[in-house]
Amino acid sequence: MPTRFTPEIREVFMQRLAKEFPNPESELEHRSPYELLVAVMLSAQMTDKGVNLATRKLFAAANTPQAVAELGVEGLIPYIRTVNYYRTKAEHVVAASRALIEEHGGEVPADFDALVKLPGVGRKTANVVLNVAFGMSTIPVDTHIFRVSNRTGFAPGGKPAAVEKKLLEVVPEHWKHDAHHLLLLFGRYICKARSPECERCPVAEFCSAPEKAARLADAIPGAPSLDPEPQASKPRRRAKAQK
Hints:
The chain has 3 domains: 7-22 and 142-189, no CATH class; 33-133, Hypothetical protein, domain 2 (Endonuclease III, domain 1); 198-241, no CATH class. Helix content is 59%, strand content 0%. It has helices at 7-20, 33-42, 48-61, 65-80, 86-104, 112-116, 123-133, 143-152, 160-170, 176-189, 210-219, 233-241.
């Protein structure tokens, strides 16, 4: 049966992610709230590495709302042509830059409602900016966090907004600021979509996903599948020892 995530188990869950990723932070390169906003807007269906390759060139030439607005869509496209859906994203970035100038004095507002009114800025982007640039305890939900939350049963939900609401309810208060990055890094590097590395997962004992049993059976031929309850930590250590 699935793990019943009590407050105590959730605390252990977060502690183990923090041990695995001791310095959680955004992998999008930026030096200002505006640069972060642009980077996140470009990141949809892109790797952070791919976004960084584009923004290094862009930000060397234009890294303020005024400079990007002056470039215009056609001037911006050559810098971000390697990014998926570059034309649509260029239109959104330029429109958002102009809105920042006209409505916020060229500054990125530290306010959720104001951010989501900007062209091309949705809930996830706004929450990333608030969390990373302004240090707020928001929990943006991307594809990694949505997958991890549902696969492990930590915070299940049918849509990203539902998962976000659940995470804000169940993540211990002192973990809320770092929860986004801990869960994201865990999903990006261990609990991956196509090939989750269950044999080295720090929270495998709490997870009842069907793919976990298959992965661990492959790692230890003939070994029984792990019980999802916390007391099943010994088989996980055996898996690591025999890896």
